[in-house]
Amino acid sequence: MHYERQKLMAVTEYIPPKPAVNPRCLTPPPRPSQEETGLIRLLRREIAAVFRDNRMIAVCQNVALSAEDKLLMRHRLRKHNILMKVFPNQVLKPFLEDSKYRKLLPLFVGHNLLLVSEEPKVKEMVRILKGVPFLPLLGGCIDDTILSRQGFINYSKLPSLALVQGELVGGLTLLMAQTHSLLQHQPLHLTALLDQYVRQQDEGHSVVPASGQPDPPDPVLDS
Fold first, then answer.
1. For 37-94, what is each residue's pLDDT tens digit?
2. HEC string for 37-54
3. Which of 65, 122, 134, 144 is deepest in the core (most CB within 10 A)?
4. CA distance 80 to 122
5. Angle 149-156/122-130 helices, nearest 10 degrees?
6. How much is the pLDDT for 223?
7. Environment class of residue 121 by beta-carbon count within 10 Å: exposed (0-12), middle (13-18) or buried (19+)?
């Protein structure tokens, strides 16, 4: 009888259903908000200043550079007023999410560094990065315009602003000279014609007969 009771209890034992979703796939409970430290506030202010005060912001993959290589890189960039900035992603990404630079978020994977300058020094930056193949350029923005890596390369091939301004001034000067010449041509031609007409009239009045009297007018024929 005791054996039969055990069999009955085993058959009627409650088996709970398996969950439809693996517990590992469920959203983790929200973490308690950590109190913002003074260092985080300082980094946020510095990040905001970097994006506000610089027209060129380039994002590079921060590979394992030696201290000597990184110092040399900083020196070469600083000669062209390009600064190297490194910020932790846990502080940089929240800033980008709430700003107009949110489209740069896909570039920040792993360790990154920023190359920034107040004026677009794209040609100098691309030339320096070509000599450092293990520091890849991912993209960035110039004057709030998002650019890819190829976009930076194409931008670096554009002529300098001084050259474009010189060509523009030369073209405008040539057009002004041509316009001035066209405007002066007609008045000068008209003046020459008038002078010639006046001389012809003076020559006609100065011709008189040997008798000293002008020729009588032609007689009018009776109809």
1. 888 889 999 999 999 999 999 999 887 777 888 888 899 999 999 999 999 998 999 9
2. CHHHHHHHHHHHHHHHHC
3. 122
4. 10
5. 110
6. 42
7. buried
